[in-house]
Amino acid sequence: MKKILIAIITVVFFSCGNDPVPKPKAFLRLEYPEANYDKALTDLPFTFEKNILATKISSNQIESDTESYGVTLEYPALKGTIFLTYKTITTHENLIAFLKDAQNFTQKHTIKADEIIEQIYENDIRKVYGMFYEVGGNAASQSQFYVTDSVKHFLTGSLYFYAKPNYDSILPAANYLQKDIKHIMETVEWK
Q1: Which InterPro entries does the record match to this protein (predicted)?
Q2: Per residue of the chain (191 residues), what is the pLDDT tens digit?
Q3: Taking a C-beta distance cutoff of 8 angstroms, is the pair 79, 162 a contact?
Q4: Is beta strand 49-51 parallel, antiparallel or unpaired with respect to 46-47?
Q5: CA separation for the pair 55, 32 (Å, rounded)
Q6: Are 155 and 84 in contact (CB under 8 A)?
């Protein structure tokens, strides 16, 4: 019994001392290469520049009432994908429906999003007009956009990651790919 008491006193004596100090928060520092862009070589009704970090680009025709295409830009190093959807406008009603769909798609993320920041985009020279949405929080898609010439062409895009959305974890990659999405918007040219 005496040995047990001495052991307990020894543990208590040596465990006393400096107050515990919490470790400072540490953040993983992720560095990505500087973005280099080249023209995406596709047979689509539009052209754009893509980051060479997007190692796989694929496109396919989508069955629809109007001429439609789906384009996928994969970023395996960032575990993310940018999805583009092109639709041909045939009537004014098409345009209105496409605009509503694009805006409603973004608003569906308000359940998980902390905020949605809208940025208008206009380029009168190339006739490209649209909106970029930055979605903050644990939403499934961190960035979305649409652009149109309001007459014949309509293009939407969204960013998704392969992992469950955890805003703090994907923020560096999301910021990097947001710049790519903006670059796609800024370099779209209709054929």
Answers
A1: GldD-like (IPR019850)
A2: 666 655 555 555 555 556 666 665 555 556 788 999 999 988 999 999 999 999 888 999 999 888 999 999 999 988 889 999 999 999 999 999 999 999 887 766 555 666 778 999 999 999 999 999 887 777 667 788 999 999 999 999 998 888 765 666 777 888 889 999 999 999 999 99
A3: yes
A4: unpaired
A5: 15
A6: yes
